[in-house]
Specification:
Mean pLDDT is about 85; it is low at about 95-105. This protein has about 180 residues and is mainly beta. It has one helix spanning about 100, and strands spanning about 5-10, 20-25, 30-35, 40, 45, 55-60, 65, 70-75, 85-95, 105-110, 115-120, 130-135, 140-145, 150-155, 160-170, 175-180. Strand 15 and strand 16 form a beta hairpin. The strands form five sheets. A four-stranded mixed beta sheet has the order 2-9-8-5, with no helix packed on it. Helix content is about 5%, strand content about 45%. The chain has two domains: about 5-95, Cupredoxins -  blue copper proteins (Immunoglobulin-like); about 100-180, Immunoglobulin-like.
Length: about 180
């Protein structure tokens, strides 16, 4: 574990995905900075790989930092204002080369989604899979994608409202993102 980068996030009401989501490397630190004077917490949500909790902190400019040491997905939220108003996901990956990190040009929209999720795949991907998991880690959907397909539409109309994780695995490239169904 060599990475030791500090990633800064604002922490205030209505701060949610996608601006609150990060993909970082093992050993990196995330520092949340209070940008309002309200009391907040930063704490892991159900299904998080690591356990962290700032406790209640109040005050403009206050900070909480946590260093992530285990590869995995870490949903988090404010225990005072709830996941619907303040939440995000920190995805921790093993160290990536600059080329691998830059190659991630995968786009999915809209997020939050109500019926159809559009996914645009990068031109240089190998065939692979798209998988959707519940926050508890149960696989709910999986689809194999051939390398000649660049746009995928997923019908999510049968999914209940809530938070999920969508995992893309194309060759050696693995990416997990938070998905909200409304």
């Amino acid at each position: 574990m060599q990475a030791q980068t500090t990633h800064d996030l604002d922490w205030e009401r209505d701060f949610t995905s996608p601006q609150s989501d990060l993909t970082i490397e093992t050993g990196d630190t995330v520092r949340w900075t209070w940008t309002d004077d309200l009391p907040h917490t930063v704490e892991n949500d159900t299904g998080s790989t690591e356990t962290f909790n700032s406790g209640t902190i109040t005050g403009l400019g206050q900070t909480y930092s946590y260093t992530f040491t285990v590869e995995g997905v870490n949903p988090y939220f404010c225990g005072i204002h709830g996941a619907g108003n303040m939440s995000g996901t920190i995805t921790v990956v093993d160290q990536l080369s600059v080329d691998e990190f830059a190659a991630s040009k995968l786009l999915m929209f809209p997020n939050p989604v109500s019926t159809e999720l559009q996914i645009q795949l990068p031109n240089n991907f190998n065939e692979g899979t798209i998988t959707i998991f519940s926050v508890s880690g149960k696989q709910l959907f999986g689809q194999f994608v051939k390398n000649d397909i660049k746009d995928v539409t997923l019908d999510l109309s049968q999914f209940k409202s809530g938070m999920y994780f969508i995992k893309y695995q194309f060759g050696e490239h693995i990416e997990t993102k938070r998905l909200v169904v409304k």
